[in-house]
Specification:
By secondary structure, the chain is mostly helical. Helices cover 44% and strands 6% of the residues. It contains 13 helices and six strands. β1 (63-64) and β2 (67-68) form a beta hairpin. The protein is globular, with a radius of gyration of 23 Å.
């Protein structure tokens, strides 16, 4: 059932995106593809005899209106990829989870061309995972064709949103997220699909395909040199300063505590969480992810893990920070060593 839902949602997403009259292309596509990916991960977990449901501390399943509460997509990513936080497929999906929340209630056609590469990669990755996990008969590629397109404009993404001030927060997020992705992941077709079309004379063979996709990493060195004559990519690097898609220290502490198995320590007559906000303060100091309070340049953070919010003069923490701490502190000696770290005020 989950597998069928995944395929149907993906096909609907493509249908929405390719309808010429629809202006809410990216928004509709992303929402449906999020459903498709979530259902696909659930199907994978069920096949592996893993129940993708949230549990309480007691071990009982969390219920919503009588049904077990299923893992959302971000939890599915954590469970499926584990410590592989730099996986290009994972980074592609982590781009869309907060972006969906930004655009699903807005119609912003000017963003469509700017995120086409990530949108296309999300579809190709899903089809590849369908084949890998369940076999070729479940692939979508036989049901899809290359859509006819009239590219709307030669404007850059930045120029396009100048006419729509309400789009700027979304553009800021897109540029900020891309600036935190490693160059290797950015260059991967699994993170963002990049292509260019050059019109050529009609091929003499009637059997020749009008459009054919060729993986860049499968080209010879000579073929890559020819491609490079036409294509150049510029990556803009900026230090993010915002509170978008970040967590408070208390939220980080709760997530890490649960990821570590909810361990407890004795404090007087009661038990408390072993990883709490106080221990979290020790962590950002020990691992150097942000400066101490009162420094001249508070924005100088390790922005993979921590982002400074100038408006509120405080810090937010990313999911990458949660993943880093979870992986690091599974080492018992590392976790125990935090209690020996010299304490200081937050």
């Amino acid at each position: 059932m989950s597998l069928e839902k995944a395929r149907d949602s993906a096909l609907l997403a493509v249908e929405v995106y390719n309808k010429p009259a629809i202006k809410f292309k990216s928004g509709g596509y992303i929402c449906l593809m999020m459903i498709a990916w979530t259902a696909l991960f659930h199907a994978i977990f069920f096949r592996k005899k893993i129940k993708p449901f949230y549990k309480k501390d007691s071990g009982r399943y969390v219920k919503i209106e009588g049904d077990n509460k299923c893992w959302e997509l971000d939890e599915c990513l954590r469970q499926h990829f584990k410590t592989d936080t730099g996986n290009a497929v994972r980074k592609n999906l982590e781009f869309f989870i907060p972006l969906r929340n930004q655009i699903e209630h807005r119609s912003m056609p000017e963003l469509d061309a700017g995120i086409f590469g990530e949108c296309q990669a999300m579809l190709l990755n899903l089809d590849e995972m369908l084949e890998k996990e369940f076999g070729g008969k479940y692939c979508l590629r036989e049901s899809l064709s290359f859509s006819l397109q009239l590219f709307p404009s030669s404007e850059s993404l930045s120029d396009a949103v100048k006419h729509r001030p309400t789009s700027k927060p979304v553009l800021d997020f897109i540029q900020r997220y891309r600036s935190t992705v490693s160059p290797d992941v950015l260059a991967s077709g699994k993170y963002s699909f990049k292509a260019f079309l050059i019109q050529v004379a009609n091929h003499k063979s009637e059997k020749a395909l009008p459009i054919q996709f060729v993986h860049y990493d499968k080209l010879s060195e000579e073929e890559r040199k020819q491609v490079s004559q036409f294509v150049a990519m510029v990556k803009f690097k900026e230090v993010p300063i915002s509170n978008l898609n970040v967590m408070k220290a208390s939220q980080v502490a709760k997530k890490v505590q649960m990821a570590l198995g909810n361990p407890k320590i004795q404090r007087g007559s009661k038990q408390v969480d072993r990883f709490n906000v106080s221990v979290h303060s020790i962590c950002w100091k020990k691992y150097g992810v942000r400066p101490a309070p009162g420094v001249p340049n508070p924005e100088k953070t390790d922005y993979r893990y921590c982002i400074y919010d100038r408006m509120h003069n405080d810090y937010g923490y990313t999911q990458g920070w949660v993943d880093f701490l979870t992986e690091k502190l599974r080492d018992e000696s590392e976790l125990e060593g935090l209690y020996k770290w010299p304490p200081s005020a937050v």
